[in-house]
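Researcher: Quick sanity check before group meeting.
Model: Go ahead. Protein one:
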Amino acid sequence: MTTDTHSGSDAQSPAKPLEVDGSDHLEDLIDRHDVVLVDFFATWCGPCKMLEPVLDGLAGETDATIAKVDVDQHPQLAESYGVRGVPTLVLYADGEQVDQQTGALPADQLRTLIETHTE
């Protein structure tokens, strides 16, 4: 079962991270949701694996939509967003990029970053 909001008319934040299946899907998520945190990750990346439960928790605890992009499956997408290392986290608010961080950040720092743009 896929947890996606393509079919819904309201842009309520999903309680679990969404796997992005291409650039159109990512652009749609950014356009339809107020705050989107995009995780550019790789399955072989140790810090990415450490970040996964943090992002799972934030998806359920915050109003942000968490989107996950596997850079090995979508290298052109990662390149077009300027991703040079993984994990890279890009935060969008109202369709505009407001922050970008490379590396696994602690949950409290990510929560603060998200909440700054959801209030």
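Researcher: Fine. The other one?
Model: Protein two, sequence then structure:
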Amino acid sequence: MKNLFLAATVLVLAACAKTPDVDYDKTVDFTNYKTFAWLPEATLAGTGNYQISELTEKRVQDAVTEKLQQQGMTLVPAAEADVLINYHASVDTKMDVETFNTGYGAHWNNWGMGYNTQTTTREYEVGTLVLDVVDQNTNQLVWRGAREGRLLKNQSPEARNERINEVVTTILSGFPPETVK
């Protein structure tokens, strides 16, 4: 029973990791949005992390454009768009700390108990991609989606494309939001 509970907990946590963080203005009628354009200042560069480059920016823009077009929206010049798309990314360094305690008992006629504690630490980078949808007429943010994930080094360009497409698809799975009337 304990193992079943542990397995269920792991599955729930894994599902949560794939769920994007989405927020939006509930007063907005998203069915009115048919066209989009990129905010002219939209950029990921300048974060100081080698994994966020002009190549990454192009991959993000291509993935978002493709996904929005699959959802029926049309890419148009900024002056004609219903909404403007903005994006940004951050990279944080996190640390994983694991401590293992091992014990051994007395043997023969010796009394007492000995313990050995071993602590290991690993540093890793976590990236967060945020996509914003801004209403062109009001210049107000109406929708935001984000996803965080561990950054992997030494990936091929194909693997980077695949990972970015997966992240963008996950984030945009909440756009447009389902409105309850």
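Researcher: One line on it for the slide.
Model: Residues 21-172 form a domain with the Double Stranded RNA Binding Domain fold (CATH 3.30.160).
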